[in-house]
Design goal:
Blueprint (H helix, E strand, L loop, with lengths): L14 H11 L14 E10 L2 E10 L5 E10 L10 H12 L8 E4 L12 H9 L3 E5 L17 E6 L2 E7 L8 E7 L3 H10 L8 H15 L2
Parallel strand pairs: 1-4, 4-5
Antiparallel strand pairs: 1-2, 2-3, 5-8, 6-7, 7-8
Helix pairs in contact: 2-3
């Protein structure tokens, strides 16, 4: 399914040019509640093996969490790993995987950062602005910022802070298990993003769309 891009730019910029693009595109980020009616939620993940990126895109019916569509593909990595510029490496394979879906979601969950990023423009922001669709970052680790200790119960939260600014939320998705780190991508706000991540959980650390996307990339890489 072809995806209309609302912003286009080169995918092989120099580091300085990439930073300039981030600073330009972040002006387009919209902070607003997620849609009141969400019927489908997507998940995106990438795994790297032998110089290639294996990208998975999945779509779940919401709130039943039944799989509606999935796609996995592998393409050569076209951009080096540079801290803070990860989206220039991940977005091209993710867009290619998304084009292989038979159905698209109302909201995308991204395995990565939203505004919890040094320039407030992580992977979820980049994808959201390019597609002008609601996106949420849901990362397994902190890139920047600190948070207070969380209570051990599922649903416990603590703001992720940097220099006095709330840039995300640490969210306990399973009792006594390490939290995930939720941040706004585009056309989302933090409260509705946290609620959606918790609503997509089925007893594991990752919300179901990200859990399946991660599993698919692992299976695709390790299966002959």
């Amino acid at each position: 399914m072809p995806l209309p891009l609302y912003h286009e730019h080169p995918w092989n910029p120099s580091p300085d040019e990439a930073v300039q693009l981030q600073n330009q595109l972040k002006k387009e980020i919209l902070h607003q509640p997620l849609p009141e009616k969400i019927e489908r939620v997507g998940g995106l993940d990438v795994r790297y093996v032998d110089g290639c990126a294996r990208a998975a895109a999945v779509v779940f019916e919401f709130p039943t969490m039944k799989v509606a569509a999935q796609a996995v593909l592998e393409i050569p990595v076209s951009y080096p790993y540079i801290p803070g510029l990860f989206s220039f490496r991940e977005v091209p394979p993710l867009l290619a995987a998304m084009e292989g879906l038979a159905a698209l979601p109302d909201v995308w969950l991204c395995d990565g950062q939203g505004i919890a990023h040094p320039r407030r423009f992580g992977l979820a922001c980049h994808l959201g602005v390019l597609l002008d669709l609601p996106t949420v970052g849901c990362a397994k680790s902190v890139l920047i910022g600190t948070h207070a200790p969380l209570a051990p119960e599922r649903g416990s939260i603590a703001p992720l802070m940097e220099n006095g600014e709330v840039i995300g939320m640490a969210v306990r998705t399973r009792d006594k298990i390490s939290p995930v780190f939720v941040s706004v991508g585009h056309r989302a706000d933090l409260d509705s993003a946290v609620r959606l991540v918790l609503a997509c959980g089925r007893g594991l650390r990752l919300p179901e769309p990200l859990r399946l996307a991660h599993w698919l990339t692992t299976q695709a890489v390790t299966t002959p």
